[in-house]
Amino acid sequence: MSSAIEVAVLTVPPARAGEFWPHISQHIEKALEYGWNTPEEVLTLIENAQAQCWLAVKGDRVLGVWVTRIEQSERGRYCLVWLTGGERVHEWLHLVGDEVEPWARENGCEELQLVGRKSWVRRLPEYKWTSVVLRKSL
Fold it and tell me: Is residue 48 part of a domain?
């Protein structure tokens, strides 16, 4: 009989985002390392229900965090997995799609877009690689 603890997915209620923040902020900060937003901006978006925060939890430890946003354009509605960070990614990265895809469909999204590292192409083979983001400081 196996005593392995499974990785569970939790969503952070907007009203409790500040309570969870000490447990997830280091993952968010690392995900923002190459971005323009500050951790405080992300927290505010989550608290105001303008972004959704998802956790991969094993036992009492947060292994991973991802933040989604529902975006609306003239072409339709889509869900953007905007920020992703954590440790032992091989244990939970597949849960991003498993959990977010049904939720996005329920919220009227026609597509799921994920911003991530190039190496994730191998880890998420069901996703189509369509572009690369190149950056240069000015």
Answer: yes
Give the Cα-Cα-Cα angle 111, 124, 83 (nearest 5 degrees).
65
Residue among 33, 34, 91 at smallest CA distance from 62 = 91
What's the domain range around 91?
7-123
pLDDT tens-digit map of 26-66: 999 998 987 789 999 999 999 999 999 999 999 999 999 99
Looking up residue 22, the CATH number of its domain turns out to be 3.40.630.30
Query: Three-state SS for 8?
Result: strand
Question: Total domain count for the chain?
Answer: 1
- 113 Cβ partners below 8 Å, 6+ apart? 78, 79, 80, 81
Q: What is the CA radius of gyration of the chain?
A: 15
pTM for the whole structure: 0.86
Exposure pattern of 12-35 as b/e (b: 16+ CB <10 Å)? bebeebeebbeebeebbeebbeee
Residue with tokens 């509605």: 77
